[in-house]
Amino acid sequence: MKTIIYLFFPAVMFIAGCTFALDQKKKSEEWMAFNQGLIKGAAEKKPAVIDFYTDWCHWCKVMDEKTFSNPEVKKFLQENFITVKVQAESTDEQHTFQGKDYNSVQLTRAFGISGFPSLAFLDSGQNVITVMPGYIEAPMFLHILKYIKGEYYKKQMSLEDFIKKNGK
Question: pTM score, two decimals?
């Protein structure tokens, strides 16, 4: 019986590890590095969503698991936005934004971010539209994405008025 357990346990751990690795690979394909995302956004003339996160941040993980994984949110992001992730505490990654070079810590400060998760939205010309701190549930995030994509902020319509007019 012990032999079966000794053979079975490593097999289960191997399968779990492979599943985790595939999930991480898939997640990294959907979200790009900062420089890569800005280049793609400029080429495709798409706005960008930048997720500033830390490895220790509980709500960053919840945002990944619940908000970004929501099928409706995921589809809308893939069709309409360039998605970028920045590990806000990294000093190893180098980024260029508006002609200046930054590591991730400096870039996070340049966006005025001090809490996590925080999302920055850039228009297709790579101008900052807004930065939103904190966890956002999927239904509200979808409203925000539609508001940004439709450029309602340029029409002097508040997000609150947009939601009242266009949705639940």
Answer: 0.82
